[in-house]
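anyone else get weird line breaks when pasting these?? whatever heres mine. first is seq + tokens for prot A
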Amino acid sequence: MKTISLHELEEWQERDRRYALLDVLPDKAADETRLTESRCLDFVEKVKCLGVGTNEAIVLYETDTARIESEAASRALMDAGFHEVYCFTGPRARYYATQHGPP
């Protein structure tokens, strides 16, 4: 599993590097405790529907630091042929707020 820190992600932004920033547990899935295998497959299908290419960088994050499911989502994306998947390891809520306002 590849990771990316807040500092590295800020460097990507400064260089205008293209990447998809994806919340691993959006909406009702965040209310459940685990990202199950079937939900991993649903997650992969949703990523494909977004038009993210298998060679594009994907950064996975979670707004709720109590649940860490990025690793499961990363494995599912890698198994589906996505090559550049990173799990964000920085202060998730702070970074989310800089991009989208307070969670």
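and prot B, same format (seq, then tokens)
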Amino acid sequence: MRTFNIQKFKKNIDSREDKTAKTINKDYRMERFSYEDENAVVTLGQQSDGLYVEEVREKNSVYKMVFLYYEDTCSLAYEGLYFKDAAIGIHKTYSKDGELTEETDHDAGLKDQGILTRVDMVEVMKQKFSIDIEKEDELWLMNLYKEDEKYIWRIICNANLEKDIDFSYAYKFDAKTGEFLSKKPFAMEG
């Protein structure tokens, strides 16, 4: 069973002497640090509810695995995969004894409505435009919305001068069929 690396966390975060001040200080509970581990960036921290958090993201990837650990035992409480900051796939919750207590399929709601998932749209973008939106430097934003009773995936890709793409573009697709609808230059307003 996976456990939280409390020694590494304390070594990098716990430099203050007064434990009382640290647990009362709201900022302490949200403090995090990151380090590189081979091809990944690992972030360790502690949430305001006391759970320790470990995020593991491969370099230049939109995917990250998130693990939460119980404060008193450092045992695994939760694990789940995220695409940017959107939960995807099956997430699991565990008791302090390591027993699986809950599984949640974050793609089930989309699948039940016949909507393509983010992972499905990765393949659509690769096939239709040779763009790998699994890479963080390629994808800026991906969102699903309803327009005129039709679900639309909007995928905004970053400008990439190495590929002679001078502008960010917003691609729109029918979210149920993957049919390409439009491609327009995208600029941030504001």
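btw re prot B: The two ends are 47 Å apart (CA to CA). The chain has two domains: 6-106, 110-186.
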